[in-house]
Structures are given as structure tokens and as C-alpha cells.
Design brief:
The complex is a heterodimer of chains A (about 170) and B (about 290).
Chain A: E1 6-12, E2 15-21, H1 27-34, E3 53-56, E4 59-62, E5 75-77, H2 89-96, H3 106-119, H4 125-131, H5 142-158
Parallel strand pairs in A: 1-5
Antiparallel strand pairs in A: 1-2, 3-4, 3-5
Helix pairs in contact in A: 2-5
Chain B: E1 7-10, H1 14-22, E2 29-32, H2 38-43, E3 51-54, E4 64-67, E5 70-74, H3 79-84, H4 86-91, H5 93-100, H6 105-108, H7 113-119, H8 126-132, E6 136-141, E7 144-149, H9 150-153, E8 154-156, E9 159-160, E10 167-174, E11 180-188, E12 195-204, E13 212-219, E14 226-227, H10 229-235, H11 242-255, H12 264-286
Parallel strand pairs in B: 1-3, 2-3
Antiparallel strand pairs in B: 4-5, 5-10, 6-7, 6-10, 8-9, 11-12, 12-13, 13-14
Classes of the chains: A alpha+beta (about 170), B alpha+beta (about 290).
The complex binds flavin-adenine dinucleotide (FAD).
Flavin-adenine dinucleotide sits at the interface of chains B and A.
Chain lengths: ~170, ~290
């Protein structure tokens, strides 16, 4: 069968990017293989583990279950897009509170947590745990992940709102 | 994992989408909504459409509209929209309660009400709300529009009456009476989050008063979600008591179509327990 290709343009971490790809390319492979943004990880590849979570137009989505072509005209933020000169408060908090062990799930956890804090800037512990339903940490380091997110909420509340509302 | 190759088309509006679906006959055109059932199937090569018709830009499939007596919910409405929309929250709290139990936030950000119904997974949450709220589905095809209820729409697991040339455009919910109470109780599968059993109840109820207009819908058990009409009959006109709840739960397992279930006694027990607990939860919300 003929392999169709398409020109796909989207915004990734604030930068417009275009690539000629097959429509079957998943967003996660577009990010990793076409753009070399390898911070987004492929874990289970069945949309269970959440390691591949990125933001699409500010919302947390598992990028192994989205086609890159579906994102044409949309804005994607990956873990690489968080740092603006200095670490994002979420990254700062994970470092401070030991929110990662092996680090494999961490990018997806952070992107999920960023959406969580946007909805609940001052979350309860149970809101955090509920919000993390879609990510798995095989080191089982959930306690420190929860603590890191609580700490990030505090750091972000102390900060001026970020100009990039999309990632803040 | 990669899907088989396919051609991708993004429909501009409903007419454009219908034209692609009508096609020339030798292409297998599949609608893509949130993709959270279809893409996993395609990655496993269990689905190999030759054309994916992305309907995300089709305006006719969007929006939540309050019409006289009805709330019309566009097929593309995502779970997350159902949990946040004020009209749904005010008029159809059961639907937002059910949507909030689906999977996790990432899945709720993508999955749509229309995609869930068309996928017809026997273990999906939304069908329980659609049955308990007596909604109807609007199907549009080359020969025009037709409306069916969910029991008519769903034939068997993963099979519906939707023609290959038709689109589900909206789900229309009659606006319940102010006095309507509702609840949903689900036993999520510990790994996948899908309901092993889910029980939705609606009715006009107040404590110590006989129950009227009661509807009980069960999902996860048997080949498709169903209205437990005999259970409803047991409850109707009765004053709520623990004995009544137990009797109703005993009836509920007799009307589940469970003959083919491999773990029959487990499922019977689960159905009994969850119908009974859902009734307590329902009356808890009333008291
Ligand atoms: C990790 C994970 C966990 C999940 N957990 C749950 C859960 O707990 N409970 C639950 O109920 N579900 C769960 N689901 C399934 C989820 O609800 C799916 O999103 C939903 O079943 C499909 O909706 P969609 O918009 O993604 O549809 P798609 O995947 O895009 O489409 C599904 C099917 O419907 C067809 N279709 C879609 N829209 C239309 C339309 N408007 N007209 C005609 N045909 C159409 C498509 O052609 C396809 O055949 C889960 C899914 C995942 C990936």
C-alpha cells in the first residue's frame, strides 16, 4: 500500500515546527524522533503509564495515543519547554523534595502535575493523589512525588504568574 | 507500536465528513474523535482503516445546548467538558458524576461521549448515564437524520446499528424534573479503571416517601449496558427500607444477561452488592 505523507505544522515549546511525516506517526515519536525532544518517554505504549504525558493547548495528554497530525495548528509543551532560563518551580520542587528516583516517569508526572496545579493551585493531598491517577512510578516513589507537588504549589503561589500561561 | 499506514483527512464540516464516509466504496473510512479507543486498536492492528476521518473541526458535533425540554450534547464533547460544564452540572449532574469516574485526567481530556457510545465497549461508564437519563442518540447519514435510544443503538459488544455512512452527531437528554435524584456507583477494575460493574440510579425520591419514576441502569455486566426494569418494578411505589434494597438487588442479578460470563458467580455477587450499595448511596443523597 502507498504510504501517504503529509506536511504537519504545530507549535512545540513556543516554536513553530513543520515536518513531512506519515499520518501514522504518533505525537510521542514526532517529538522524540523528528524533533529530538527525548525528554518525553515511551513507557507502556498503551496509554496506561502516563510517562509520555505532554500538554496540548495546556491540557495533559498521553502522547502515545495521539497522532501528530491531530495536533496540526495546536500548541504542544514538553518537559523541555518548562525551563525558561532557570528551572520551572515544578522541577525545582522535584529536586528539592526528591520527587524522582530512576527518573523515567518524571517528565510525564511533572506535566500532569502542572495541569493539576492549574486547576487546583492549592491542592489537598487527596486531590494530588487523584490527579496522579494517570501516571505510574515503578520505583513506587509516590510519597515524595506528592510532597514535591505540594512544595511546587507553594513555590508557584509565591511567584508572579508566568507570562507563558500555557505552561504555568 | 505503529499502526498500519492510512490516509488522513480532517473534515471541515458535517457535509464534508458525510461525503468522505459515503466515499467510493473501496476504502474503509473510519471516524477519529478522541482516538482513545480507536488508536489503541489500530496499534494492535485490530483495526486497519485505510482512511482516518478526523472530525475534530466539525462544528455540528460540538457544543452543549439547552433546548426546550432537552439538553443537546454534541458527540465530540469530552469527558472533561462534561465534568466542568455548568449546564450539565445543573441539569444532568449524573452525567458529570459518571464522566468524572472515567479513567484519569489525561484520558478525560481526550475521550468523547460520542466515541464512547460508538465504540460500544460493554465495560464503559457513559452508557449507564445515558440509559438512566433516558437519552436518545441523533444519527445523521446520507438519507437524513434518525433518533434511537441506546438499547436500540447498541447491538452487541463493539457493535452498533450505526451505518458506515452515518455519524453520531449528538446525544439528547430530556431535562429531568427538579426533584430528580441520581447517583452512580462503580467498581473500577484495579488496573484499567474501566467499570467491572457500574450502577446508575435516577428517580424522584424523598426519605420515607414511596419511590417514583425510578430507573436503574447497569454497565460492565453482560454484553451491553441495560436498564434493570424488573429491579425498577420492585422499587416502584415502595418506601425505602434495607429489606427493599436487598430484595431489589436479588432481582437485579436475575435480569443480567450473564450466561456467557466466565466468572459468573463473582459477577452475580458483585452486581448484587453494587445495586444494593448504589441504593443506599442514592437515598443518602436524598436524606
Ligand atoms: C487508559 C485508558 C483508560 C480508559 N478508562 C476508561 C474507563 O474507566 N471507563 C470508560 O468508560 N472508558 C475508558 N476508556 C475508553 C475511553 O472512554 C475512550 O475515550 C472512549 O471509549 C472513546 O472515545 P474517543 O472519543 O476517544 O473515540 P475514538 O477512539 O476516536 O473512536 C472510537 C470509535 O467510535 C467511532 N466514533 C467516534 N466518534 C464517532 C461519531 N461521532 N460518530 C460515529 N462514530 C464515531 C470511531 O470510528 C471508533 O470506531 C479508557 C481508555 C484508555 C485509553
Amino acid at each position: 500500500m502507498e504510504h501517504h505523507r503529509m506536511e504537519v505544522t504545530m507549535t512545540v515549546n513556543g516554536r513553530s515546527v513543520s515536518r513531512d511525516i506519515e499520518p501514522r506517526v504518533l505525537l510521542v515519536h514526532f517529538l522524540r524522533d523528528e524533533l529530538q525532544l527525548t525528554g518525553t518517554h515511551v513507557g507502556c505504549d498503551t496509554s496506561q503509564c502516563g510517562s509520555c504525558t505532554v500538554l496540548i493547548d495546556g491540557e495533559a495528554v498521553k502522547s502515545c495515543t495521539v497522532l501528530a497530525v491531530q495536533c496540526m495548528g495546536q500548541s504542544v509543551t514538553t518537559i523541555e519547554g518548562l525551563e525558561q532560563g532557570s528551572l520551572h518551580p515544578m522541577q525545582e520542587a522535584f529536586r528539592e523534595k526528591h520527587g524522582l528516583q530512576c527518573g523515567f516517569c518524571t517528565p510525564g508526572v511533572m506535566m500532569t502535575a502542572i495541569q493539576l496545579l492549574k486547576q487546583h493551585p492549592n491542592p489537598t493531598e487527596s486531590e494530588i493523589r487523584e490527579g496522579l491517577d494517570g501516571v505510574l512510578c515503578r520505583c513506587t516513589g509516590y510519597e515524595t512525588i506528592v510532597r514535591s507537588i505540594q512544595h511546587a504549589a507553594g513555590l508557584m503561589a509565591d511567584q508572579e504568574p508566568q507570562p507563558e500561561e500555557e505552561v504555568g | 507500536m505503529r499502526t498500519a499506514p492510512f490516509e488522513y483527512h480532517r473534515a471541515q464540516d458535517l457535509d464534508d465528513a458525510l461525503e468522505w464516509l459515503a466515499g467510493d466504496g473501496d476504502r474503509d473510512v473510519k471516524i477519529l474523535a478522541g482516538g482513545h479507543s480507536l488508536l489503541p486498536l489500530m496499534k494492535l492492528k485490530l483495526a486497519t482503516p485505510t482512511v482516518l476521518l478526523d472530525v475534530q473541526d466539525v462544528p455540528e458535533l460540538r457544543g452543549i445546548l439547552l433546548e426546550s425540554g432537552w439538553v443537546r450534547i454534541g458527540a465530540l464533547t469530552r469527558y472533561v467538558d462534561l465534568t466542568r460544564d455548568a449546564t450539565v452540572g445543573d441539569s444532568l449532574p449524573l452525567l458529570s458524576q459518571v464522566a468524572a469516574t472515567v479513567a484519569d485526567i489525561q484520558v478525560r481530556n481526550r475521550g468523547t461521549i460520542g466515541g464512547s457510545l460508538c465504540h460500544a465497549d460493554p465495560a464503559a461508564d457513559i452508557p449507564a448515564a445515558v440509559l438512566a437519563l433516558d437519552a436518545r442518540l441523533v444519527l445523521v447519514g446520507p438519507r437524513g437524520e434518525r433518533r434511537v435510544n441506546l438499547d436500540e443503538f447498541t447491538v452487541a459488544p463493539f457493535l452498533t446499528v450505526l451505518e458506515p455512512t452515518e455519524i453520531l452527531t449528538a446525544i439528547e437528554f430530556p431535562i429531568p424534573l427538579q426533584s430528580q435524584q441520581s447517583t452512580y456507583l462503580k467498581r473500577p477494575h484495579p488496573a484499567s479503571g474501566y467499570p467491572v460493574v457500574g450502577v446508575a440510579i435516577t428517580g424522584d425520591a424523598s426519605p420515607h416517601e414511596p419511590l417514583s419514576n425510578v430507573r436503574v441502569a447497569v454497565t460492565g455486566i453482560g454484553p451491553k449496558a441495560y436498564r434493570a426494569e424488573k429491579t425498577e418494578g420492585t422499587l416502584k411505589g415502595q418506601v425505602p427500607t434495607p429489606e427493599l434494597f436487598r430484595a431489589a438487588a436479588d432481582v437485579a442479578i436475575t435480569e443480567a444477561n450473564m450466561s456467557d460470563e466466565p466468572d459468573l458467580s463473582y459477577r452475580e455477587q458483585l452486581t448484587r452488592v453494587y445495586v444494593e450499595r448504589a441504593l443506599y448511596q442514592f437515598y443518602g443523597g436524598v436524606a
